[in-house]
Design brief:
Pfam families: DUF1844 (PF08899). The protein is mainly alpha-helical. Helix content is 60%, strand content 0%.
Length: 126
């Protein structure tokens, strides 16, 4: 018979996860993993808001997409030197793809350098 650790709480068990459990878990996660995970979440949310997900036009909200892409650009630009080019290169590629998708989805295109996140990345051209 095996026993479960005391800190392994699941929502199904009716017990909540305590602050100490969350702190212990996050303390074990390397910074590069936290940065890349946050970036991937921002990318996913921005893709949905650009209308690129399964919901398409129904989920499209370019105002929200602009905010998410700008936040992603700031994170990728500031975090790149800390996470190595191995991790930063795919994030930069994804960011550029989102910036281009935003430009295509916009009825009134932004001037070069004024698109979402371009104050951090510089102008993005197709």
């Amino acid at each position: 018979m095996t026993s479960q650790p005391d800190h392994d709480h699941t929502p199904e068990s009716g017990e909540g996860v305590g602050f100490d459990d969350l702190t212990r878990d996050i303390a074990e996660v390397p910074a590069v993993e936290v940065i890349t995970t946050v970036a991937v979440h921002l990318m996913s949310a921005a893709a949905v808001k650009c209308g690129l997900a399964e919901g398409g036009e129904a989920d499209k909200d370019l105002d929200e997409a602009r905010k998410l892409i700008t936040a992603l650009a700031g994170l990728v630009t500031a975090g790149a030197p800390e996470i190595s080019n191995f991790h930063a290169a795919p994030l930069r590629d994804g960011l550029r793809s989102l910036q281009l998708a935003f430009r295509e989805a916009s009825l009134v295109p932004d001037a070069p350098g004024s698109g979402p996140g371009e104050k951090f990345t510089g102008p993005v051209y197709s």
